[in-house]
Amino acid sequence: MKFFNNSFVNDCEKDYVSEMTLSEIQRVLTNLQASPTRTLGQNFLYDQNLARKIVDLLDIQPGDHIVEIGPGLGALTCFLQRPDIRLTLIEKDDRLIEHLRQNFESETTRVFHADALEFDLRKLWGKGPVKVIGNLPYYISTPLIAKYASALSPASILVLTLQLELAERLGAQSGTKEYGAMTVCVGRRWDVSFERKLPASVFYPRPKVDSAVITLRRRGGKSVSALNETRFESLVRRGFSERRKQLRKMLPELKSDWDTLTLKLGVAPTVRAEELSLKKWELKRVCS
Ligand code: SAM
Q: What pLDDT is stored for residue 18 in this prediction?
């Protein structure tokens, strides 16, 4: 029985959907002598309907360049393959690389054995934009988001499967306990949509927590205010570093202006970081 074929999406779906079951994943892992490793955050998705729905969120168009972080055994990859796009797969586990190459490598699909945290997207075909997808290894979800959603990233959209708790933090509203520095720093450049919750039971091995799929769409140039990025992130991180403290105590450099500033923002001088919406954080007066 063939696990994948190396053809394009329709053939691939036909073979793959009927065969990709929990027992099939276990069979392939046994053949590869590769038991899932917690240190690589390996929880393989085995619900193919979900995999297809997650891929659909990318809204793939002819000519797109898609980058998949951590393809694993190819649960999402299978639905990504099309003759009219370019696909880049970045996988760290050396035990899975040959399998990925045999099943997916082609003129339009390149497999990189690399750490996605160190991978330089500029090495790829052209300069972008690229669409990024990944069922992320949980142990490095936060630094991966920081890298692939950074100001320099060529990504136009990211479709990410994450721990539910992290997804909730990224999409949080001000005033909630989930709202934090990451919400503000990512939200400044990206519109975050919470797509769906995924129960732990759709992964092998089953993770300890539920997951969620989120989409990050790059905000248009004009809706991203021109700020000193480094200063912005530093103020935000410091502001949130002790959530219970008033912001004026956390940002002493703004002390002399504080009353005027908070009056203009329409907030109490005793405001705390979590009470300041993204728009208010972005005001030039706070961050420039
Ligand atoms: N995409 C597959 C799926 O949905 O079944 C696998 C997802 S699994 C949660 C995470 C994958 O990321 C694993 O294949 C793991 O080996 C890979 N991985 C872990 N750390 C990585 C890193 N630093 N760079 C690239 N891939 C990594």
A: 36
What gap in Å lies between CA 161 and CA 137, rounded to an integer? 9
Distance between Cα 42 and ligand 1 center (Å): 6
Is 25 found in the same domain as 47?
A: yes
Cα separation, 245 vs 89, in Å, equals 44
Domain coverage including residue 194: 6-223
Tell me which of 172, 190, 223 is where a domain ends: 223
CA 183 – CA 25 distance, rounded (Å): 35
Q: Is residue 117 assigned to a domain?
A: yes
The pLDDT assigned to 124 comes to: 76
For ligand 1, residues with CB inside 6 Å are 40-45, 69-72, 75-76, 90-93, 115-117, 135, 137, 140
DSSP state of 272: B
| Domain count across the chain | 2
Average pLDDT rounded to a whole number, residues 16-36: 80
For the chain, what is the radius of gyration of the CA atoms?
21
Indicate whether 76 and 138 sit together in one domain: yes
